[in-house]
Amino acid sequence: MSKTVALCVSGSIAAYKAVEVARLLGKAGVRVLPVFTESAAKFVGPVTFSGITGEPVRTSMWDASFPGEMHVKLAQDADVVAMVPATADLLARLAQGRADDLVTALALSARGPVLVAPSMHPRMWAHPSTTRNAATLRADGVRFVGPVDGPVASGETGMGRMSEPADIVSAILLAAEPGDLAGLSLLVTAGPTYEDIDPVRFLGNRSSGKMGFALAARAAARGAQVKLVAGPVAEATPPGVQRVDVRSAEEMRAAVMDARARVDVVIMSAAVADFRPEAVSASKLKKSDGAPALRLTQNPDILAELGQGRTGTAPFLVGFALETGADADVIAYAREKLVRKRVDLVVANHAAESLGKDENRIHLVDASGVETHGPVPKGALADVILTRVRGALRGAAPAPPAPSS
Ligand code: C5P
After folding, report:
1. What number is the average pLDDT over the span 132-153?
2. Which of 303, 297, 293 shows the shortest CA–CA distance to 272?
3. Domains in the chain, start-ordered, CATH in brackets?
């Protein structure tokens, strides 16, 4: 069934990119209803939007020729309400639940997902009030695509640049198609952790984060709300995913513990460092002082803490086991982890087949047995793992809504 998107444009230089968003949505077979804030027309011409979409641009709620309440009618027609670009002012007004113009009244009346693509100067994005507003909106279920780090209109560079039109369109299309994981909230960890030795050196590992990012991307594409806690990696944030960057195991632990009560599933695919230097030197260790004797101390085992601290069955816990050795040994280690860390599913894989690779082979180990998959691309493995998780949750709890089409 074809979808309808209300494309709300607010007054930012990036408004010209909303023209491309409208065009790409139209190309994807989506009906686009353009809506402007008062200031949007100072940046882009309504004629361009009506020409591309074949629909009139709406700005005012006070159009006497319109039969009925315009915001309610637009909300009724729209499967998704998208704010492209969303200025700091629009985020503030949305966070307050205001309804003093057509765009905000439409957002309040939306019957489906509301998505924002923020665009502003990096200092405006970093301002505590914008941070507060964004957090409020996220808690209200508003989906964010971007902003991203890059050049902004002033010529400076930083976090505040609007996401590229193609990424915004992917996120809108994704929001328009509730997938089989709609209603589920997932926390995924990915990548390595770095444990500092001094201001320039650290202990790390070779995890690329590809598996965790694939899990986050596929879960979001299938309709889940996804928070991704990422160690230092070079992967781009998948559309529709809320990302938190961390460096050390302790930082990752804090981010996971902070989010755990609000999620249905935790997938710990990160290669968390087991040890860290007992003390971090405040100044660079000097070669002339000779090789230091590094004393290491144990890091917290985040997954074990989650499993052993769980009173009921929530959140559903998935751990990874990266091992070297024969299949039988790898599976035996995974079984041991399943029991000791008190988790629901362990994804066992071999270091030589996995680290930095785009494909992998995995053994899914749970209380009922072992299932081997691959080698196939990590995106396909992500789908296998997520389908297993969905199946297990459906067995234990009311099923999430089925896909609509
Ligand atoms: O015990 P091992 O490190 O092999 O367990 C791997 C699993 O435990 C992975 O899911 C990993 O993310 C998690 N882990 C953790 N905290 C640690 C070490 C591992 O959560 N300190």
Report:
1. 91
2. 303
3. 4-176 (3.40.50.1950), 185-395 (3.40.50.10300)
Cis peptide before 128 (omega within 30 of 0): no
Task: Find the residues whose C-beta lies inside 6 A of ligand 1.
Answer: 249, 268, 270, 272, 274, 299, 301-303, 319-321, 337
Which residue numbers are catalytic? 205
Provide the phi-psi class of 370: left if phi over 0, else alpha when psi is between -120 and 50, else beta: beta
Q: What is the per-residue DSSP string for 268-322?
A: E-SB--SEEESS--SSPPPGGG------EEEPP-HHHHHHHT-SSS-SEEEEEEE
List all residues 6 or more positions away from 248 whose beta carbon is below 8 Å from its beta carbon. Answer: 193, 194, 195, 196, 273, 276
Decide if pLDDT at 239 tops 90.
no
pLDDT in tens, 240-274: 789 999 999 999 999 999 999 999 999 999 999 99
Residue whose Cα lies nearest atom 9 of ligand 1: it is 320
CB within 8 Å of 366: residues ≥ 6 apart: 338, 344, 345, 346, 392
Q: For residue 232, give every residue at least 6 positions away whose Cβ sits within 8 Å of its Cβ, in sequence order, or none.
A: 191, 192, 194, 204, 245, 247
Q: Which residues pair with 369 in a beta bridge?
A: 366
Instruction: At 370, give phi and psi (nearest 5°).
Output: -130, 140
Which helix (H) or strand (E) is 343 found in, with range? none
Q: Which atom of ligand 1 is nearest to the CA of 320?
A: 10
Ligand 1, atom 17, residue with closest C-alpha: 301
Convert the pLDDT of each residue in 121-134 to its tens digit: 999 999 999 999 99
